[in-house]
Amino acid sequence: MPDRSSIMVNMNRLTTEKRSQVIAALVEGNSIRSTVRMTGVAKNTVLKLLGDMGLVCSIYQDRLMRDLPCKRIQCDEIWSFCYAKEKNVPESKIGEAGDVWTWVALDADTKLVPSYLVGARGPDEARDFMTDLAKRLRHRIQLTTDGHRPYMIAVPNAFENNIDYAMLVKIYGPAPGGERRYSPGICLGQEKQPAIGKPDPAHISTSYVERQNLTMRMSMRRFTRLTNAFSKKVENHAAAVSLHFFHYNFCRVHTSLGKGTTPAMAAGLTDHPWTLAELIGILEAAEATPVKRGSYAKTRQVRREISE
């Protein structure tokens, strides 16, 4: 007779088809509640699936994004918040709520996102982000960032000056009509500032990674501005970012790369666009591994099994 606990797990687990419906809704920019209405899946089940998918996507990408043949990388940071904006965080939530920044590196040629980081916008995050990016690249690259000062220390430390690096500093004027709450200032110009090596002036740009910012805001409801769709927990926020970038890299066809080509295909990481069933297959393979109860034990063992 089968074990009772295994029966309960099988009874409560969503089918691959139903999981595909949930993931399809999430990666196309729907909120958690609208996903619940569209699929009929309970809210807590959607959140659990998001967390599990975010975990396995993070681990799988960490393993695959190695020895990458990138030549030109652009980096930027995109702002969001969890629970409340930094200035409105109550005392009881200090340290677990407030502004959250997503650091993104994008290959200008393949449009691949080889590295990202969710956290604050300080020097520690800049160091971790650049260190992670440097260890994933095969060759010396040309790197362009915005004028964020922590890059000046993080980049040379991570790449040990074996890089052609420049900053693109934009010069802004006052916001239209003096309004500064929502309207951005007018960009009056930009200044290219070579910092290390000999970066090619023609490729000192952050245009592609800034366009990725728009893709993120359109593909993840919790990044939409001026709405009540913000993240309530940073864990769910990070899981959504991880799922987004896996789907973007491996599943989403990028028209500028050619017919039926994803960034991962352009970078030589796969030979076909992944389906949602293949994406969910990573999670199902991890679930097939016997693990102890408890999220921490499961996380440790799943990380080990996927990495092997």
Secondary-structure map with pairings?
Layout: H1 4-12, H2 16-27, H3 32-39, H4 43-64, E1 72-82, E2 98-107, E3 115-119, H5 123-134, E4 142-145, H6 151-159, E5 164-172, E6 187-196, H7 207-219, H8 234-251, H9 263-266, H10 276-287, H11 295-307
Parallel strand pairs: 1-4, 4-5
Antiparallel strand pairs: 1-2, 2-3, 5-6
Helix pairs in contact: 2-3, 2-10, 4-8, 4-10, 4-11, 5-6
DSSP strand count = 6
Shape: globular
Low-confidence stretches: 1-11, 292-308
Class inferred from helices and paired strands: alpha/beta
Number of helix segments?
11
Mean pLDDT: 87
| Helical residue percent band | 40-55%
Q: If strands are numbered along the chain, what order do they take across the biggest sheet? A: 3-2-1-4-5-6
Give Rg in angstroms: 21 Å
Secondary-structure element order, N to C: HHHHEEEHEHEEHHHHH
CA(first)-CA(last) distance: 33 Å
- Quickly count the domains: 1
Sheet having the most strands: 6 strands, mixed
Beta-strand residue fraction: 15-25%
Detailed description of the structure:
This protein has 308 residues and is an alpha/beta fold. It has one domain. The protein has 11 helices and 6 strands. Strands 3-2-1-4-5-6 form a 6-stranded mixed beta sheet, sandwiched between helices. A hairpin with a 7-residue loop joins strand 2 and strand 3. Helix 2 packs antiparallel against helix 3, helix 2 crosses helix 10 and helix 4 packs across helix 8. The protein is globular and about 55 Å long. The chain starts with a helix and ends with a helix. The N terminus and C terminus are likely disordered.
